[in-house]
Amino acid sequence: MQVLLLQVLFYHPEGKLMSEKLTNEQKHILFNEGTEPAGSSSLNYEKREGHYCCAGCGTKLFESTSKYESGSGWPSFFESVPNVFETKIDTLIGSPRTEYHCKKCGGHHGHIFDDGPKPTGKRYCNNGICLVFVPEKK
Fold first, then answer.
1. CA distance 107 to 86
2. Does residue 111 sit within a domain?
């Protein structure tokens, strides 16, 4: 008797392999540039030490030490891990905004604004559903 094993893989429209564990909402936000409702992410309340990774590919994107409460309704960070994002200008709402995407999988994470705290003055406004929090091991 032969057994055929099937592995289901999902691909980004540009042919990049995606995690097979993504929900439909995660796929929509990451690869169709959607946005989760403000205030809907449990990561807004995450205070433990650790880091935040891309839900699409696992790339480490932010340290917990760069997270702050912006009042925007989305997890916000003043600094990312170096060289993990590519940016483009988004004019979907009429005025230009800087959108950022994971370099490895192309997943859309949010927008960067110039109203963040010191030392960078930046606010990476991230869709929480596109992040996976990894607590620091003690």
1. 10
2. yes
